[in-house]
Amino acid sequence: MNPAPPVTPEDRLKALLRAARPSPAVPPQFVAAVWRRIEAGEADTCAGPWWLVRLADWLTQPRRALATLAVLMLLGAGTGLMQGWMRSHEVARARYLAAVSPPEPGP
Amino acid sequence: MNAWKTWMLVVGALVTAAAVFVLTSQAVARWCAERLVNPHDDLDWLRREFRLGTAELARIRELHAGYLPRCQAWCAQIAARKSELAAELTAQGTFTPRAEALLREVAALRAECQADMLRHFLEVSRAMPPDQGRRYLAEMQRLTLGFHEQTERAMTPAGHSGHAHP
């Protein structure tokens, strides 16, 4: 028969720490609550309709965002050219009309 | 990214895109409008609208230069008569025979001024290619006489229910 191994002070300290560590009771429905939170987190990451997510993905890429901006500026410039041409036409017409048929002077 | 942040991103991007488009177009439109008009030439519109050649434009420029002093003289006469009429009405406080005579003079001067203007338009239209001349004449009649017609139409019983003549 083998003699019992000697109990060292270190073993006694470990046993004491184990005994002192509280092990709280798990509240009821704990597991269900954890799964609910996990499901809620997953739902939160689904950020709206698919097209919105695709659009957001598109816009968050700097190269694509800059390209979109450049296209918009080009379109704006084109529209501005047409508007400017028409506006200049109206200004020139008003100038001619003011010369040949000026507004009647009044007292 | 949650749904709220995604919506904010997309809406913010759309607003920015709209702002970039509108600001660019407005800036370019203003720049063009300033550059495309010759501020020293009254006839710039004629040249552009009726696609006039150099010779036609030169002839119209002569007609225009001849008409302007006449137009200014009519305007000065009308302004003088209207001032007299205003002074007469203020001084007498009633509608005197002299005020009536002045009113008739203003109307007569206005009619002569318009007749002279129409004669000028006719001359200018003859200096243009026939199709463009017809278009010019119609446009000028619409733009110059149309204003009076609108006023007169508004004063007729059909156009102005509160002012019907017996």
Query: End-to-end distance of chain A, in Å?
Result: 135 Å
Spans of chain B of 5+ residues with little confidence (pLDDT < 50)?
159-166
The major beta sheet of chain A can be summarized as: none
Poorly predicted segments of chain A:
none
Task: Tell me about this structure.
The complex is a heterodimer of chains A (107) and B (166). Chain A is an all-alpha fold. Chain A contains 4 helices and no strands. The longest helix of chain A is centred in the C-terminal third of the chain and has 39 residues, at 62-100. Chain A is rod-shaped. The termini of chain A are far apart. Chain B has 166 residues and is an all-alpha fold. Mean pLDDT of chain B is 86; it is low at 159-166. Chain B is flat. In chain B, 81% of the residues lie in helices and 0% in strands. Chain B contains 6 helices and no strands. In chain B, helix 3 packs antiparallel against helix 4 and helix 4 runs antiparallel to helix 5 (130-144). The relative contact order of chain B is 0.06. The chains are: A mainly alpha (107), B mainly alpha (166).
Annotate the secondary structure layout.
The complex is a heterodimer of chains A (107) and B (166).
Chain A: H1 9-20, H2 30-45, H3 50-59, H4 62-100
Chain B: H1 3-36, H2 44-49, H3 54-92, H4 97-126, H5 130-144, H6 146-155
Summarize the structure.
Chain A contains 4 helices and no strands. Chain A has 107 residues and is mostly helical. The mean pLDDT of chain A is 83.
Give descriptors for this structure.
heterodimer; A: 107 residues; mainly alpha; 4 helices; B: 166 residues; 6 helices; 81% helix
